[in-house]
Amino acid sequence: MIHTLKKDEIRSHTALRGWAALMVVLVHFRSFLHPSIDPDEVTFFFAKGYLWVDFFFILSGFVLSYVYGIERPERRTFPEVTRYLIARFARIYPLHFISFIAVFLFFITGALINWGWGGGFCCVFEDDLRSPESLMANLFLIHAWGMFDWETWNRPSWSLSVEFFCYLGFASLLAMEGRGRKLVLLAWSCTAMFFYCFYLATSSDVDENFRLSIIRAASAFLIGIMLFLRRRVMSTVSDRWLTFIQIAAGSMLLLALHFGITDVVSIGLMALIVLITWEDRGFLCKWLAMRPIYTMGVFSFSIYMWHYLIKFAALEDWEYYTGLTLNSSAAGSLVFVACMIILVIPIAIWSHRLLEIPARIWISSQLNSLLETRYTPKCA
Predict the structure, then answer these.
(1) What is the per-residue pLDDT across 141-196, written as a single tens digit (0 to 9) for each?
(2) Higher-pLDDT residue of 318, 222
(3) Is residue 5 part of a domain?
(4) pLDDT cut 90: percent of the chain above it
(5) 3-state secondary structure labels for all residues of the chain
(6) Of the N and C termini of the chain, which has fewer Cβ atoms inside 10 Å?
(7) Residue range 9-31: average pLDDT?
(8) 23-32, 44-53, 323-332: which range is least confident on average?
(9) Number of domains observed in the structure of the chain
(10) What was the pLDDT predicted at 3?
């Protein structure tokens, strides 16, 4: 089987996931701010916040390569690859399904309330944002595979859809021998280079064309794989120099996001940060190891999956039920954003402990039991 238990956790990467998730939350919650507080007038940092999703993809490519030993040239057997796919499916699908159902029930409840008050039963399906076709695509986790022009239903889940596509691509690599794997990685690299060269030449944003989400995710995921294959280059760097590189790379990334430099540069700097933190050495890694930051990484998936529904509910229902305007004052809007962020955390903790982990364990055990029953040799 594919052994994963002996692999030590890269704690810095776990913490970086939490940082990226928090950045995505701040990017989305800035719409609550008073018109007099417009961060986009003074910095591109939040406008470029979509790039933290690319950071997720890079991290995923690196971590999966680390856990499943992609550098080993031998081909994995069918049961081994299947166990890998079961693990990845159990990792992302249960919370995707639960949050999707929650979003669906949210709109059904709103429609029933509106109908009960004498209005029409409406607003469950709304154009392409919430269509019957996208509903079925969400259930099968293929809704960002180039069939729609934008996110649908629980909008952050688009990244899970394309990440699952990357998981399938990674499974194909595991199923190949060393030579075939190298050829696929070469072809994959050419596609990624073409993708990034196009955006570098046109100075376009990588999120402008939603139908290219698969290529966007696969390109960043590949960066993670290639970083892992070249990870040993950092082993010769002393802790002092590594700290200097970490501070320089982090500062350059923040400046690139602040000034809105072309996305390819920011993605390159994000990739560098993934590479220089994988050994959990240096000042940045010590900072990331702080308990609050690391814990944020543990709950990052639930933070990411629930924050948009919380935001939508607040936008739709807060003023109606409280009579208070969301952004009536600058100070009030700041307090409200702070309260919304604080609200996300306990919901994420509850989701992680009572939904995400139990569902993952149950699905893994059930599917692996079926696999073992199918492939365990029967006694004569």
Answers:
(1) 999 998 888 888 888 999 999 999 999 999 999 998 878 889 999 999 999 999 99
(2) 222
(3) no
(4) 52
(5) CCCCCCCCCCHHHHHHHHHHHHHHHHHHHHHHCCCCCCHHHCCCCCCCCCHHHHHHHHHHHHHHHHHHCCCCCCCCCHHHHHHHHHHHHHHHHHHHHHHHHHHHHHHHHHHHHHHHCCCCCCCCCECCCECHHHHHHHHCCCCCCCCCCCCCCCHHHHHHHHHHHHHHHHHHHHCCCHHHHHHHHHHHHHHHHHHHHHHHHHCCCCCCCHHHHHHHHHHHHHHHHHHHHCHHHHHHCCHHHHHHHHHHHHHHHHHHHHHCCCHHHHHHHHHHHHHHCCCCCCHHHHHHCCHHHHHHHHCHHHHHHHHHHHHHHHHHHHHHHHCCCCCCCHHHHHHHHHHHHHHHHHHHHHHHHHHHHHHHHHHHHHHHHHHHHHHCCCCC
(6) C
(7) 90
(8) 323-332
(9) 1
(10) 44
Q: What are the tens digits of pLDDT across the range 208-220? A: 888 899 999 999 9
Cα–Cα nearest to 311, from 156, 98, 159, 163 = 156
For 55-69, 103-117, 209-223, which range has the lowest pLDDT when averaged over its residues? 103-117
Which is nearest to 210 in space by CA: 262, 155, 167? 155
Residues listed for the chain: 380
The per-residue pLDDT of the chain, averaged, comes to 86
For the stretch 336-362, what's the b/e string if a residue is b when 16 or more beta carbons lie within 10 angstroms of its beta carbon? bbeebbeebbebbeebbeebbeebbee
For residue 262, give the amino acid letter: T
Place of tokens 């000034």: 259
Residue 273 belongs to a domain: yes
Query: 């100075």: which residue's tokens?
Result: 203
Average pLDDT in the 60-76 region?
91
Does 3 reside within a domain?
no
Taking the alpha carbons of 162, 167, 170, 172 in that order, is the dihedral positive or negative?
negative
**Closest to 219 (Cα-Cα) out of 186, 192, 190, 188:** 192
Contact 106, 313 (CB under 8 A): yes
Indicate whether 379 belongs to any domain. no
